[in-house]
Amino acid sequence: MSSRSFKLPKPFRAVVIGGTGGIGGAISEAFLELGAELVATGASEAEIGASALSGRNGVTLAVLDVTDDAAVKAFAAQYDRVDALINCAGILRRDEEFDIEVFQKVIDVNLTGAMRCCTAFRSALGAAGGSIVNIASMNAFAALPRLPAYCASKGGLVMLTRALAHAWAGDGIRVNAVAPGYIETAINAEGRRDSEHYNRIAARTALKRWGKPDDVAGTVVYLCMPAAGYVTGSVAMVDGGFLAG
Asked: Which entry of 150, 182, 198, 230 is annotated as an active-site residue?
């Protein structure tokens, strides 16, 4: 296999939905380091303003509400060719997801929002022979009692990934997912202050540590490279071996 297979072709346009911070931010940075043109979205002007990507060359930042059908379609319509679409927008609401309205909101962002983006960008991805990477979660396979909607949305995202991989293979579009485990991000910052909890999770992994956003980014970028050209419908676990034991 040529070493070029492990590089992004030029030009290469990556769209990272939810790409301004945390795991999404690390994915965005990884694409930039490899010379991609980057389009990254955040849920608010505040997120965009706080992003380390602001003002960088080769970066377009935009506010996008993934629950707004018209907004997603209008956003995607700006691009006639996209090489990679990364669906990383996600929320969770611990203990509140038993309320049906909160449950539906989480599903709408995490699962339906990803589907909106996939369908809106289908034409542009087909034009490039591009790929989709959906950011699922270890909790698609190992449930947590305080997060019924989050777990359901990530489980649904795994099956959406597999279904679209079959449905769109004829368009030259590959569709994969990455399932992170315990990654140190703002979403779990409060829980990590409990050293007993933090150490218990670390000890449960094969690698004896929590993951970093960069640990996820490398796998995502690989799935968009020519080297992964025969990979579709797959779910890559990035959990430090948490579920392997």
From this structure: 150
